[in-house]
Specification:
Helices cover 36% and strands 29% of the residues. By secondary structure, it is of the alpha/beta class. The strands form three sheets. It has a six-stranded mixed beta sheet with strand order 6-7-8-3-9-10, with helices on both faces. A four-stranded antiparallel beta sheet has the order 2-1-4-5. It has a four-stranded antiparallel beta sheet with strand order 12-13-11-14, with helices on one face. Helix 4 crosses helix 5 and helix 8 crosses helix 11. The longest helix has 15 residues. The protein is elongated, with a radius of gyration of 25 Å. It binds adenosine-5'-diphosphate and magnesium ion.
Length: 315
């Protein structure tokens, strides 16, 4: 449904986006997660036809956004980082304006009414936008994105600047919209993608550094890199033997938690799964393995390590 292929956006000798590719299937709710300046808005603006790419292509339902922006845009409802609201219009005037702009074909009154019910802005329908709270303005931004009932919604930092109660309301609204639309939302807040999204695309310094659901990201990044093993036997000998194994970076005693055993924290190279060779080595040496578990890395830890290690925006 959405395909981004090798998108690059350069400003002078700096890359805002540097070779990003991904595909999104119908019905997905995808979180575009990255710190400020990662290239989220740039990617979304390119995807929605609001900005041209230096190179690369984006397809919406097989339509090249550069070749046929009008057709592609009909399939997208876009809520930009700064919603394009006209302060001196009432909500009604504004939504009617958007309706005309999009050349919408649904019966006007019913269509706009339906959206206002869904978004819960009926009670401010005749108020001037400038007199609305930030939370209501954001809702009006959502409403304009929904005019024409596009199958895809692209939301750039939809909860920025809202208070905690409004944030929860907007997240619930996104989940609701996700039942009928394909949704891409960008955020720099990890909890937001955890609360709302099925899939997370992490970008940093203009590059895609991870793509998957929360478990996949945690596994891929943390894997079995850190294990705690409880082993019975002489601790000095055991430590020496573990440290000598291929792929082991460190092995340290955590202390005695159970009579006659020692807990060790074992750190391995990222690509190495040490569990089988460890089991065999200990069995051969006559040291019973009494317990083995992965040190769980939270998604927070994973995100921090992803954005610390990867990328490179400078040309
Ligand atoms: P995000 O939305 O993830 O915070 P942006 O896509 O807005 O990031 O920006 C990515 C990078 O590109 C940033 O370093 C930003 O300063 C730079 N950038 C964005 N727009 C422009 C522009 N018009 N001219 C120069 N640099 C830009
Ligand atoms: Mg942004």
């Amino acid at each position: 449904m959405i395909e981004v292929k090798n998108i690059v956006k350069a400003y002078g000798d700096k890359y805002a986006v540097n070779d990003i590719s991904f595909k999104i299937e119908p019905g997905e709710i995808v979180g575009f997660l990255g710190p400020n300046g990662a290239g989220k808005s740039t990617t979304m603006n390119i995807l929605t036809g609001y900005l041209s790419a230096t190179s690369g292509t984006a397809y919406i339902d097989g339509i090249d956004i550069l070749e046929d922006p009008t057709e592609a845009k009909k399939r997208i409802g876009f809520l930009p980082e700064q919603p394009p609201l006209y302060m001196d219009m009432t909500v009604k005037e504004y939504l009617e304006f958007v309706y005309d702009l999009k050349g919408c074909k649904f019966p006007r009154k019913e269509h706009l009414q339906e959206i206002c019910q869904l978004i819960k802005i009926e009670d401010v329908y005749n108020r001037m936008i400038k007199n609305l709270s930030k939370g209501y303005r954001q809702r009006v931004g959502f409403a304009q994105a929904l005019v024409g009932n596009p199958p895809i919604l692209i939301l750039d930092e939809p909860t920025v600047g809202l208070d905690p109660r409004q944030i929860i309301e907007i997240r619930n609204l996104i989940k609701k919209l996700g039942k009928k639309h394909t949704v891409i939302l960008s955020t720099h807040i990890l909890q937001e993608v955890q609360a709302v999204c099925d899939r997370i695309i992490v970008i940093n310094k203009g590059q895609l550094v991870a793509d998957g659901n929360a478990e996949q990201l945690t596994y891929k990044t943390a894997g079995n890199r850190r294990l705690v093993a409880r082993i019975a036997g002489g601790k000095t000998e055991i430590k020496k033997a573990i440290r000598a194994m291929d792929g082991v970076l460190a092995a340290d005693e955590l202390g005695q938690k159970e009579q006659g055993t020692t807990d060790f924290l074992i750190e391995c190279q990222p690509s190495v799964d040490i569990r089988k060779p460890l089991f065999r080595m200990l069995a051969e040496r006559g040291w019973p393995l009494m317990g083995l578990k992965s040190m769980d890395m939270s998604l927070e830890d994973v995100f921090v390590s992803l954005i610390a290690n990867e990328g490179g925006a400078e040309a």
